[in-house]
Structure formats: C-alpha cells, structure tokens
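Posting here for the record, re: coenzyme A.
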Amino acid sequence: MQLRDGRVAVIRPAELSDARQLQAVNAAIVRADRGVVMEVSEIRPTDHWRAHIARFLHPGDLLLVAEVDGVVVGSLDIERIPVDSLYHNAELSMGVTPTHQGLGLGRALVDAGLEWSIDHEIGRLELYCLADNHRALALYESVGFVRAYLRKAFVRRRDGRVVDDWYMEWTHG
Ligand SMILES: CC(C)(COP(=O)(O)OP(=O)(O)OC[C@H]1O[C@@H](n2cnc3c(N)ncnc32)[C@H](O)[C@@H]1OP(=O)(O)O)[C@@H](O)C(=O)NCCC(=O)NCCS
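Prediction output follows.
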C-alpha cells in the first residue's frame, strides 16, 4: 500500500526474525507516552517479543507487521479466546511507531485485520482504548467499533494522572 508521504508499506504476517524490530516499535511507542498504559520501566526485552510472535504462528490467530523501507514500523494482533464456544471472539491490539504515525498505516493494518476476521469467522472483536487517545478512538469508530462502556479512572500513572478507558466492540454476522 502507498503511504501519505508516497512511500510504500508492506503488510505481512510476523516472523520470528521480526522480534528485535517489534521490540523497538513497542519501546518507541511506550517512550512517546501516548496511547499506552505501560511505563518506560516496563518496556519488554526482545525475548518477550519472540515468544509473543511464536504464540501467533498458527492459523487461528493473526499477527501482522507493517514494513517500510525494510523496517518493521507497526503491528496488529488479533487473538481468539481459546475455548470452543467462545472461539468467535477475539481481542485486537495495535500500534505504529511514532515517526510513522499519521501516514495511513494504522488504517491499513486495521482494514487488513477486519478483512481477516471476516474470512476467519470471527463474529466479535473487542479492545481497550484510553479515553484520551482520540486518534485511536476515531480510527476504531470509523471502521465500526462502538464504545460499549467506560472504565472510570482505570489507569493511575506514576505522575498522578488518572485516565478513563473505553471497552469497545465490533461485531459481524
Ligand atoms: C492509533 C494508531 C494505531 C493509529 O495509527 P496511524 O498510523 O497513526 O493512523 P492513520 O495514519 O492510519 O490514521 C487513521 C485515523 O486515525 C485518526 N487520526 C490520525 N491522525 C490523527 C490526528 N492527528 N488527530 C486525530 N485523529 C487522527 C483519523 O481518524 C485517521 O483517519 P483517516 O485515515 O481518515 O485520516 C497510532 O497512532 C498508534 O500506534 N498510537 C500509539 C499506540 C496506540 O494508541 N495504540 C492503540 C491502543 S488502543
């Protein structure tokens, strides 16, 4: 797909060899301190991301990465509830590294994730989104997620900030 700045992005399933770059994406998002709950001291090492990717190396769940100029700059995952009667439910999470936000990657990732969900008989997706994360809220609502309920004062930052959090859902079929 073509980005707003003219560059080309590739969206593809993650591979174990992406672990280091996925770690860097996540660390940069946490350091930017917008849209995520984790603190800098909680940034996870590459081994965590290798194990994370390994969890998705089967056809039931999805972990996509977005690559620009050969570098991973974003990801989206969709993880089902591994119980037969709940297998049509999954949780979505995603992130784009701060230097590449606003270029269309988030929309491309979420569009690809929803298309995969429809093809793989996922009837219900859920996610959590901080109430002050207006960019993500706008993106999710534009593709059909609705705000189901607000978890008041869900996050308490070390610096004293208190933030509400939306539980959102998307349903299909
Ligand atoms: C939220 C996030 C995934 C969006 O990715 P992105 O690549 O920046 O998004 P896009 O450039 O594709 O823009 C998608 C939509 O976001 C919204 N958006 C983008 N930039 C915006 C801005 N500056 N202000 C408000 N909304 C904005 C718009 O609705 C936009 O729709 P458009 O395609 O019609 O312009 C990304 O900003 C991110 O990773 N943020 C930090 C981590 C995070 O918030 N993850 C989600 C946790 S729930």
